[in-house]
Each structure stands twice: as structure tokens, then as C-alpha cells.
User: Fold this.
Amino acid sequence: MTEQEIISSLENKFNFLKEKIKLQRARRLWVEVEMANFPEVLKYLRQSQNFYQLLTITGLDEREAFAVIYHLSDGTGLVLNLKTKISRETPVLKSVMDIYPPAEIYERELVDLLGIKVEGLPPGNSYPLPDGWPAGQYPLRKDWVGVSCLDEEKKNV
Amino acid sequence: MFEPDDVKIPIGPQHPALKEPESFLLTLRGEKITSASVKLGYNHRGIEKACEGRNYTQALYLIERVCGICSHSHSSAFIQAVEELAGLEVPKRARYLRTIVGELERVHSHLLWLGVAGHEVGFDTLLMYTWRDREIVMDLLARISGNRVNYAMNTLGGVRRDIGKELAGDILKALDTLEERTKYYAGIATSEPTLIDRLSKVGYLSPEDAVTLGAVGPTSRASGVDQDVRRDDPYAAYGELDFKVVTDNHCDVYGRTLVRVGELMEAYKIVRQALRELPDGPLTVKAPRRIPAGEVLSRYEAPRGEDVHYVRANGTENPERVKLRAPTLANLQAVSKMLEDRYLADLPIVVAAIDPCFSCTDRLITVTGDQEGTMNWEDLRRYSIDWYKNKGVDFSRMKIKL
Amino acid sequence: MGLVKKIVTWARIKSPWIIHFNTGACNACDIEIIAALTPRYDIERFGMILKGSPRHADVLVCSGPVTRQTECRLKNIYDQMAEPKFVLAVGTCACSGGVFHDCYSVKGGIDKAIPVSAYIPGCPASPKAIIDAVVKLLATLDKGG
Assistant:
């Protein structure tokens, strides 16, 4: 499907997406949705628009909130970047492993590096921080500038 | 379902006295693996965060060192993103030069892999031969860039080094030699029963699983998945060059071997064409220090598969966010599946066949103790070689002639 | 030097056993270390043999910076080696932490965890530089070190 066809399908299916889909350049679409609408949009993209590959998930600290971007591919070279936002005070996401099994490792990164709680993740090894990493320290948060205990270790070593 | 006969074995780099988690946790029934889980993160250095505290030039230097095999891949994927954010049009000559270095990197990486695969199955002669040939490419890369690894070819807006007529001529001559050697390895791979036996039906990944589990690169192309970022989402000069995407239908380690050998042959063609058609012109365009706010998703077909970089700029000299997803991370999730219901003896080559960033396997080559139930990689490799020797697969009987 | 020590030293110079440990970096140095074993450089002509066990090794060849994840393991391997033992820090990261020195999981160069006998800078350190360091180290051994 062409970029335009995808945009049209999405706009027809979801009213709230009208005029909201950005065609950045050939093969690059960007869509932002509210968390309330996110699950059905994701399902639609997966089932009806053939976005069967999840390239990765990017989590960012935008200071007022956390943004989470799901980078989806339809195997033709086209990437649709689906963004949503969650509260910074109580950051919670639902796992999308049931739709995209590879999501597990990318969601674990969000847990370790941003302190986002991902519901539905099976028990398993955390990734990527080392064991013994002090709890409550989330390096990718903008207000994380190092941890005094880590700095102390560096000095003492 | 965990049965009383099942034995759990951790495989990893740790000393049993240190209660640390394992790299692979396998559940065995007899000699077969019933389940495998992988623990990652040993290589975590905090690069993404570090980029936020650096300007784009410093970040470029850092990102090139994410991986010492595909440094140009990471460097290019990143700089492409920044160039897109800055709205720069990279000169044609620069794009061709990036492509040439990128394909030479693919050549060195695949030859390296052939050697490592040989080593894993007990065919060390192959390691010595391929790594000897690989030195030809290392010499070329060192002549082009000044370094054997970490070429620092890229700068924001283009490339920093040129390839003159004399060097181009030498590259072409070297490619002839490499092509002849590669044909020889292809011959061994397709006609030597010992090697075929050893690699066939091992590490099976169905086409459906390859897609569902998100495998990339030669690992997925060997399961018939016809995807390659160079063709599907062209970057650098690939949109202007002719090349084949190599796929195979064996779905196993043998298939992955064939795909990589095929990609070597294609790489020689691509470099020849790029040198022949190398356009005149500047090497760079002027680039700003402050990059306008925006976000970009960049993709690159590294030797191991698709490398994904996300970059967000905020109008300053430093990136707001850099996110990298290297191909090995995508492929490691398929490895657990490949190991299920397979023999323990297959683990070394199955893991090696996704061509993991060498450090993943290297990390497993450290020492552990003699405690029952713990194994280190070297023990496992030897066990694997002996296991197959008992089945008649013995590389010491193979004669490889120059 | 006593006779036994002399024989042991001679044996060590003729055929030092090495063990390789990568603490966690990009692997470029690891590949150059292994390249040193391949025909172009052929470090084995100096009698160096890559061994798996620290108990039998004379030289610990380290690449990569010391990270939180690997510090204990590195110290443990070093402790298992019998004297006399030598440590080579291969590559800029192993020497000083290199480009990762200020990353949050990196502590610094190898000498933040264990004593280092020789520093081989380079990003990566080339096989020639590695061989050069090994030869110099062996020469120190020869002088009765």
C-alpha cells in the first residue's frame, strides 16, 4: 500500500486521526494517538494494514510526560511510527507482546531505563541494566544525572 | 512442562561461587534442550544516555564504537538521521563512498563470520583461511580511512576521506582475489559433505517464526524472508545501484551460510559498480552545529541485519534522544526458539549462526569452575565437536587445499 | 635466580599461556587479538597459546573497560591465576575507559580492578601493537622479572 492509501484507510477508520497523520517523507509516517485509542489503532495497523513487524520501541522523557513510540514496518520499506504519551508520575503501559512477541525485550528496556511499569510482561530477566543496579534509578530520565553511590564507587575504585 | 528428568543447566561466564545469573539457562532432557532462555545486558554501557551529553560530532564518534565489526553501519545510520533532521542533501560522491565502505565492511564481517563458524564446529582451518583473506579487506579499509576498524569516514553532511584513482584500482584488483577465494569457499560450502552435514537441519527457523519473532538480516533471509533495507528503504547510493537480495529456503544454519556467501559475491559487484560510476563532486556540504528540532527514524542494512536508529533533535548542539536497536538484539529473540527440542551439541553453532556481536559469544568464553551443572562456552564447544565426531562428522579428515 | 625458577621462566618465555577476557565493549580489540593468532600475524610463533583456564595461564589479556557487570568476574579470574602473572590491557578502553569512561555503567580502565603490566593503546589496538607488547613483556621476563 502507498503512504496515501494507508493515511486514507486510517482516517476513514478513525475520526480522531483526521489531519493528524504526518507524511514526513517517502516511507515515513508519524501518528500520535491518545493512550485511550492506542490499543485499537495498534490492532488495526497489525491486522488490517499489514504492519506485522515491530522494529523497536523508543521511550522518551519529554519532561511533562513520557512518550512511547512504536516503530512499525509492513515489510515493504515503509515505517509507521506510532506515538503515545503516558503520565510521568504514574507511568504504566500494557504490554503488546500478544500482538508483537518481540516487544518483550524493548518493553523491558522501558522498565529499566525509564521506570515505566509494563503490565503483562511475563516474569523474566530484566534488561539491560546490570544486577545490583540501585532501585529507583532510571538513567534515561532527564532528571537523572548520575547517582551519588555510583560516583562514590568510581572515586573509591 | 518441567519433568523430574529435566536438568537445568546454566551456560555462562560466571564462576559458580559467584551467584550471578547465567547467559543461557537451558532445560535439558537427556541430550536435548527442552527450553532455553537468554539473559542479555552484559554489554550495556549507557551509550544512549551518553549521547545526550555530547554534541552530534562527539556522539558520532561514540556511536561508531557501539560495535567493532559494524562500526560504519552504526555511524552511517546515525549520521543519516541527523542529516535528515538538518535537511541536508549529502553529495552524490559522498553517498557512493559511504556505500563502498559499507560493502567492504560487509565483506570483512562475513569473512570473519565464516571463520568463527568454522571454529565453532571444529574446522579451524577455515578460520585461518578466511581470516587470512579478510586481511586483504582490512588493508583496503586501512588505506581508505587510516584505521582497520572505526573508519571515521562520516561527518555531518558527507564523508571525510576520498578514494583516488590509484586506490580505486587497487581495490578492484583486491576484489578479484577476494572473489576467487569466496568462490572457493562457496564450493566447499555446497559440495563438502562434512560441512553440509554439520550445518544442515540445525538451528531451524520456519519462515513464519522468522517473521513473528522479528529476525533480521541473513538469519531471516535464510528462511526465505525477502527483506533487505538496501533495496526496500534505500539509503546512501543503494537506490542507484544494481544488486540482488540473497535469500535461501533451507531455514537452517546451512542456509545462513549460503546467504552470507551470496552476499559476499554481491558485495564485490556493488563495490565494482560504485567505483566505476563514482561521480565527481564535493565530499561534504556545509552543516550546522545546531540541529533543528524534529525526530527521524533511520535504517541501515548492517552485515548482521537491520540496524535501527531513532534520533530526536531539540534545536541545540546536543541530541535530545538517541535510540539504537542493533540487529543482534532482534535475532537473539529467535535463538531461544531455534534451540528448542534440539541437541545441546548444536548450541554453539546455532548461536554463532545469527552472527552475534562477537562479544555476546565471547562473554561466554570465560572461565567457570568444575561444579556439576555449570558449563562454560569452551567446554560446550568441545562437547559439541566430539558429539558430532561420534556421528561421523569429523573435520580433521577434511583436506582443504589452497 | 634459582635453577627451578630459571627453568620455569625459560618455559614461560618460550611458551606463555594466555587467557583472554573481554569486559564489555565493542569487540574490535577482541577481534584484533584473535587476528594476531591468524597467519598474517601469527602470534603463535612466539609460542603463545590461548588457554581456557586461568589456573594455567601466565598472561591475562584484557579488552574493554571495567564495567559494573564484569568487575567481580575480572578480579576473580585474576585471583585464580598463579604467580608470576601478567596483565595486558589491550585497547584504549582497557587502558583508561576510553570513549566510554564517563558512561554510567563503566568504571574505567582495567587498572581500576587489577594491576596492569602493559598498556596497549589504540582504537582498536592493532595486531602489530599487540605482538609488540607481548614481545616486550617477554623480554622483561627474560631479564629476570
